[in-house]
Structure formats: C-alpha cells, structure tokens
C-alpha cells in the first residue's frame, strides 16, 4: 500500500500560482483591484436598463446625426451615392428607420479580377517573410486573403448569383450595429459591473464603449460604401466578414480590455 499511497512526507508541496518552472505568476493588476460590493452591483443592475431606455429615447436624434454625417462625407469624398432611411418593422406595429447608402458600383472586368487575384496572391506570399513578432498580423492577412480568394472564385463563376447590392450591405451592417448598441450595457452588466466596485468607472466604461460605436457608425457605413464603389462587389464579402460585425466585436473586446484596467497600477 505504501507504494500506491505515498505518506505525507513524500507528497509534493502545493504551490499555487506558479509556472511549470516554479516561477511565481502574479495576479493581473486588473483582477487585483476588482471587488464589487452590493451598492455597485445594484447601481449596475439599474444602469443597464436605463441605458437601453435612454438609447431608445435618443434614437431619433442619433439617426439624424448618422444621416447628416454620412451625407457630409459622401459629398466630400465625391462618392456618387444617396443616403437613405429604410424602415424596419419590429413588433406590434412598431418600426424604426435604418440608414443605408445606395451606390451603383463599377463593373467587374477580367482585368480587374486578375488585378485582385494578383494582389491577393502577392500579399499572401509576403506574409511568410514577416518576422516572428508580426505573426499575428501575418495570420490576419492570410485569413483575409483566403476570404478574398473565395470571393474571387465565386464571382468568376457565379457573378450573377450574388444577391446583395451596396444598399443591402450597408443596411444589414447598420442593423447589426444597432443590435450591438442595445446589448452593450447588458453585456457589461454580466461581465464588468459584477467585478467593478466603482459606479463611476461603471458609468464611464459604458459611456466610452457605447460612445465609440455611436460615433463610429456613420464613418463605417461611408467607408464600406466607398470601398464597394471603388473595388466593385468583389470586395463586399471581405468587407462584411472581416471588417463588418466581426471588426466591431473585436473593437468591443479591445475597449473592454482597456476599461477593465482603469484605476489599476501601471505595472505589476
């Protein structure tokens, strides 16, 4: 039995928070200071629905701001497009307007298709020359190149089957971003308010993250419309899959990672 169950003297000493080489792994500075209390939790639980209500009330002014901003930049960039309001029926007869940009993109010619294919191949091959510290960028570019290669393949054989126009693309992107606006506060309630003890930082974090998406929305719409106009529908799948909702999710994660360290020491 002694061979199977070592005695107390032979048992390894527990060493919590140590690496495989025995080095101490300190707690991250963000978690070292996060300690929510009942008051902060109550404030966060009340603030999340209040933000949604305030957003719904402010929506008529927000959509005016988005439309005016998009029209301003469409005009300054000399992009031949129109900024439209497209109604969206929700429930019980209630509807909201969405912003969409109507543009007729250029035609996909064989020369343009070959240019896209050549640039995609060159960029893909260049990523293998990146230094090790640039590998995350290399992997991201390879994924984008793979997506664009699939797009090129589709348009080469099935161009007429592509179901989206620029107005559909911008309308759907706007709709997803609206959904993201509404869930910012509830997501922070579940992932940040329960950890943050300061109601001021809870409020500030919500304003910063939601404010970024509110301000960025018209610029994203104009950028997508202008690039679709310049690059033809060839670029629309990559724009939506790599630089649309997915990019906004990454932006949310990046902003969350920043605000969660507010008030923490600069170094461990």
Which keywords apply here?
disordered N terminus, 268 residues, single chain, two-stranded antiparallel sheet, mainly alpha
Description of the molecule:
The structure is a single chain. It is flat, with a radius of gyration of 25 Å. It has 268 residues and is mainly alpha-helical. α2 (38-76) runs parallel beside α6 (199-231), α5 packs antiparallel against α6 (199-231) and α6 (199-231) runs antiparallel to α8. Among the domains are: 45-79 and 166-261, no CATH class; 108-162. 22% of the residues are buried. The longest helix is centred in the N-terminal third of the chain and has 39 residues, at 38-76. The protein has helices at residues 29-33, 38-76, 110-126, 135-158, 166-193, 199-231, 236-243, 245-259; strands at 81-89, 95-103. Strands 1-2 form a two-stranded antiparallel sheet. It starts with 28 loop residues before the first helix and ends in a 9-residue tail after the last helix.
Characterize this entry briefly.
The chain has 268 residues and is mainly α. The protein has helices at 29-33, 38-76, 110-126, 135-158, 166-193, 199-231, 236-243, 245-259, and strands at 81-89, 95-103.
Count of individual helical segments: 8
The end-to-end distance, rounded to whole angstroms, is 46 Å
Global shape: flat
Proportion in β-strands: 5-15%
Largest sheet: 2 strands, antiparallel
Strand tally: 2
The helix-and-strand class reads: mainly alpha
H-E string: HHEEHHHHHH
Instruction: Please tell me the overall pLDDT.
Output: 84
- What's the helical proportion of residues? 55-70%
Order of neighbouring strands in the sheet with most strands: 1-2
Q: Which residue ranges are poorly predicted, with pLDDT under 50 across at least 5 consecutive positions?
A: 1-15
- Determine Rg (CA atoms, Å): 25 Å
